[in-house]
Amino acid sequence: AQLKESGGGSVQAGGSLRLSCEVSGITVSNYCMAWFRQAPGKEREGVASMDTDGNALYADSAKGRLTLSKDNAAHTLYLQMNDLKPEDTAMYYCSLDSWRHCTYSRPNWSYWGRGTQVTISS
Predict the structure, then answer these.
(1) How far apart are CA 98 and CA 82, in angstroms?
(2) Per residue in 6-31, pLDDT tens?
(3) Which of 112, 91, 114 is nearest to 31 (CA)?
(4) 11-21 burial, b if ≥16 CB within 10 A, otherwise e?
(5) Adjacent-strand bridge partners of 79
(6) How many angstroms from the chain centroid is the CA of residue 24?
(7) Alpha carbons 106 and 85: distance in angstroms, whole number
């Protein structure tokens, strides 16, 4: 499988971005998905995940501002990010694995993209 993120950029605090993750080689509907981020000097952290039943889980930092979705027909995952804050600045990665049920805290996700940079200025 191949995953390719896009949609990152530089915006001011309070702005919005929509990240996309195009997936090839696997059937998205059969896979758990998640978005992670890594800021400079910090460990990678999960921000949102969705299992194959459509159950979504968000990190506390993401609740109310970030929304995860997917388009199975387009083989694409999305992360809508609103009311962005400087602390959201990071490289954002999408990930998939073949579990039926999952959360972003589950270790050892199998498939990763290369990331897209998000920079939020105050």
Answers:
(1) 29
(2) 999 999 999 999 999 999 999 888 99
(3) 112
(4) beeeeebebbb
(5) 19, 68
(6) 16
(7) 26
